[in-house]
Amino acid sequence: MGKTYLIGEYSEKYLKKLKGEERYGTTGVLLGQATPSKTYIIFAARTPLKDEAELPPDNPDEMNASDIEWMAEHARQVSRMLPGGILVLGIFLIRPAKMSKEEAQDIFRKLTNAVESAVAKERLWNFAEDEPPERIVLQIYADSKKMKLRIFDIHNPQTPPKLIDYKSSSLTSAWQLVEATINVDIHIPVAATAENQLEKNSLKGLNVWAKQMMQSNYLIGGYYKDAESIIGEGSKKKTPVEIQFLTSPPEISPDDTVAVIESCGSGIYVKGTVRCRAYLHGSKAKVKDAIQSLKRDVLNTVYVRCEMVCEDRIVNKGGDAGDSATHRAPHRVFASTLPSGVAFCDYGFSDEGSKDLEERYKELLDYDLHPAQLERVEETMLEEMGVSPTKEPELKLFEEEEEEVIIETGFKYTGMAAAAGVGVIAIAVSVIVYFIAGSV
């Protein structure tokens, strides 16, 4: 029995609307969930134009490198808004009839590879061997009723795309929500050779924590549940399932036992509490799939918040952090955008309000968000737990001889020049902190 591909009614109506505008060359991303037996396309969002007065090229084959890069960047920004279990599955393109088959396959391959490469750069995890190695291209013929779905093998990008059949579906029921509250306390050594303490390369230090998180055990309702069992088993309706993760030091492989000596000029601390969630379709979603999707959401949201701090400092404040710095990471706000209840999210800094979130939803997802759709309950929950999202972090500066002190809010910064670590990557001697406590 072959694999089933389903397009949700919301996505189908949206694509038909774009098709009615007859803008040949319009591109966009397809969002959804892929399993070994089924793939669900739940949302489509067109690529915003670089200039509002501009129109897509009449022939998509005329797209230049900057056009492809623009679409890939849009896909990267959209991928940040996705909860666990939901991915950028591929792309769509409104194709003119005069475009040849060879031209179409060439531009599809370029767009698909560019989008996958851009999205993959922000992942701290890898796909499992049993996950489908495919990305979707949906061809929409603006001058006819045809829509064709093709799949590309991302492991073998030069393989010709395969034409497949798809079905329409409401996709409005049987979505299982799993959630977790994670305490984060991460130390990232920064090499003395780094030109900027907040450069994105510094975030490679998150890999050690990511490995630890992926190896962590779990409890469901305070009990261990077999990985092959059904996540919502015993429940008459799809109520949210709360997961608790139990972390331990990562396993050390023989390749990790080689001593490393590296000079460090500074270090970064990421400390606080985050609220994570994942969605799984179907009444028979397994525990192992729920745990995997939720762990990936943890990794994604922590990485994105740290990267956004880097971007904010470098773009808006002139780059380096200076001798000492503390930075509050953006908070996460979900919004249910689909009849199924599946919610996407955005990240907002303390000086941003609902209007900023609405504008980004319109720009990135081509969706008119209403303030009432924003979910701010999570912030209240964390505040009741004793973590105030509005409390300003405390910053203290320590001299070289002074002992390292952990402040109540989780910040510390010591000003020393450089040090060496043996057997580990490095010993941090000056610290920049990304404050996540109270973020959701």
Question: What does this entry look like structurally?
Answer:
The chain has 440 residues and is α/β, with parallel strands linked by helices. The chain has two domains: 4-169, Cytidine Deaminase, domain 2 (3-Layer(aba) Sandwich), CATH 3.40.140; 175-208 and 251-275 and 297-435, no CATH class. Helix content is 24%, strand content 29%. The protein has helices at residues 9-21, 65-79, 101-120, 206-214, 287-316, 354-365, 377-384, and strands spanning 4-8, 27-34, 38-46, 87-95, 134-141, 147-153, 162-164, 167-169, 175-191, 217-220, 241-246, 262-281, 326-328, 331-336, 343-348, 374-375, 397-398, 413-414, 419-421, 431-435. An eight-stranded mixed beta sheet has the order 7-6-5-4-2-3-1-8. Strands 9, 10, 11, 12, 13, 19 and 20 form a seven-stranded mixed beta sheet that branches. A three-stranded antiparallel beta sheet has the order 15-14-16, with helices on one face. The protein is globular. The two termini are 42 Å apart. The model is unreliable at 319-323 and 379-431 (pLDDT under 50).
Give helix % range: 10-25%
Q: Overall pLDDT, averaged?
A: 77
Number of domains: 2
Which of globular, elongated, flat, extended, rod-shaped describes the shape?
A: globular
Q: Helices and strands: which structural class?
A: alpha/beta
Stretches with pLDDT under 50, minimum 5 residues:
319-323, 379-431
What percent strand?
Answer: 25-35%
